[in-house]
Amino acid sequence: MSTSQPDNPLIVQGDHTVLAEVASPRFAEARDRLVVFAELVKAPEHVHTYRVTPLSVWNACAAGANAGEIIETLRAFSKYPVPEHVVAGIHDFASRYGRLRLSRGERGLVLTATDEALAEQIVHSKPVAPYLRERLAALEFRIDPKDRGEIKQALIRIGFPAEDLAGYTDGEVLRFSLRPTAVCGSPFVLRPYQAAAADAFHGGGSARGGSGVIVLPCGAGKTIVGLACMEKLQSSVLILTTSVTATRQWVRELLDKTTLAEDQIAEYNGQTKAVRPVTVATYQIMTWRNASDSDFAHLVLFDQRNWGLIIYDEVHLLPAPVFRVTAGLQARRRLGLTATLVREDGREEDVFALIGPKKAEVPWKVLEHQGWIATARCTEVRVPMPENLRMMYAVADARNKFRIAAENPRKLRVVSQLLDGHPDEAALVIGTYLDQLKQIANPLGLPVLTGATPQRKRDELYERFRSGEVRVLAVSKVANFAVDLPEASVAIQVSGTFGSRQEEAQRLGRILRPKRNGGQAHFYSVVSADTVEQDFALKRQLFLCEQGYSYSIVDEPAEPSI
What is the pTM of this model? Predict the structure, then answer.
């Protein structure tokens, strides 16, 4: 393309970022093709920013795309010529995927290189060489099956991700189907994007399917995608979740929307440890041990049944010990479910290597426009520090500065005003510090739910909230993940975990289930003005801004409403 094309939406920049103009008549078409091979960096109202990275290109290649298609998309939708060094970079990224392949045959598990130079490079690579058991030919190496995960991790770290075509064990057969009408009486049908995600994961049953990650917003029905993948495979399943509450939500959905019987499903957690064809466990129990130098006693669950599928719910929270055992489970199909691939520990490449590439993603705002998740208004309320705490804050170290700011007692008045402004809506007051939650909840007469709340009491409070008997709950970060509270339409965040983008996304997700009355959701973040908490709030908001949400910022109101 030698001249500008003003109707095109994209501007490809020399640093591998791509700007996409939302107002362009070709934006929707360009976005749908761009999301295949580029990562969304931010998505404000008028111009979205994407970045083409090695990992994003490898994800695209794993899904069947190639460098030519990627470059053609950029040229077809770009206003200006695509920089030649960007073209060369994409060719280089794409050429690295598939130059090494894992396959299984009569000779066992074999790693094959496409050329001798690459074969010699891996032989002399310190991270990779320990996993090469025997050189079968100039381009072929025998790999111990137990090292299938570790060698994939090592290869991705040197920039040559292996294409794993070694296939999977079928697992124990489990026959069931999805119900056309849920037990609760509601018609049940997969939404189009849910069906497409399940199809992408399954891959028609070929070796190219069966492992990967589905990225969907909170409230978009990731659990339903999991059920659809289970039905396609018809085999026993181990599901790993973040909490006992999440475990029971999975069990409810399984019983409500599939033909599985109650005696085919088991919970495995701190309270009960049954193992059945469908077993739902928590990450906490999997990583429990008597002492820091003891073995993880419950990791044996991975071998207690011939699982045909392992589902990792909230895969961005996958703890290190489960990563390690997953490296040895590469012969089993693996599905990751998450609202964001952002990991605070930066281990996105390990998710790619050990769980699989991203198979499907739908932007939050797209589902909002289609009516599948609620619209949301995000507001930051800045509250001055009381005079009597200013000196204490000034002389405190960094960690205590954050806590002093987070526990600003003036936040109580703001929370009360915000709740008064939404008198008929179900609301969550969310915080990290338990003393602060109690100091806010007690004067307002709110029930408090924390990690110390017994599971029976948690279930009771959640049910009373769902039924409308309790309108407002004060909750700690135990409610960040996988808690289905569709009635909630207001969230008031009074403290968080420093600058965690993950947590911000998950907390907004608590209120994104579509509302029966079609109403809007409101997300408030109450922060102490001119403190480190305000600085961390900017980092927390980044993920939501990337997804197209905008924050309005207001000062503490003088009147009893906002």
Answer: 0.78
Closest CA to 357 of 216, 230, 200: 200
Unique residue bearing structure tokens 């039924």: 467
Pairing of strands 472-475, 376-383: unpaired
Q: Over range 182-201, report the average pLDDT.
A: 94
CA pair distance 129, 150, nearest whole angstrom: 11
Q: pLDDT per residue over 400-421, tens digit each?
A: 888 899 899 999 999 999 999 9
Give the C-alpha separation, 505 to 340, whole Å: 8
Give 5-65 as a DSSP string. -TT--EEE-TTSEEEEETTSTTHHHHHHHHTTT-EEEE--SSEEEEE--HHHHHHHHHTT-
- Measured CA to CA, the distance from residue 358 to residue 361 in angstroms comes to 8
Residue 338: strand, helix, or coil: strand
Closest listed residue to residue 13, CA positions, set 60, 81, 88: 81
Beta bridge partners of 360: 214
* Token digits of residue 423: 């008198």
Q: What is the mean pLDDT of residues 97-108?
A: 92
What's the mean pLDDT when you consider all of the chain? 87
Half-sphere exposure in the Cβ direction for 257 (13 Å, CA): 20
Q: Which domains does the chain have, with CATH numbers?
A: 10-96 (no CATH), 100-164 (no CATH), 192-362 (3.40.50.300), 369-555 (3.40.50.300)
**How far apart are the C-alpha atoms of 169 and 172, rounded to whole Å?**
9
- Cβ pair 200, 346 in contact under 8 A: no
The single-letter code of the amino acid at 366 is: V
Which residue in this structure is represented by tokens 């090469």? 132
Three-state SS string over 246-282 comes to HHHHHHHHHHHHECCCHHHEEEECCCCECCCCEEEEE
**CA-to-CA dists, residue 376 to 96, 145, 189, 466, angstroms:** 41, 48, 26, 20
- Paired tokens of 557: 């109101």
| Better-scored residue on pLDDT, 277 or 466 | 277
The CA distance from 218 to 480, in Å, is 11
Which tens digits make up the pLDDT trace of 233-244? Answer: 999 999 999 888
Tokens of 32: 């749908």
**CB 496, CB 503: distance < 8 Å:** yes
pLDDT at 514 over 90: no
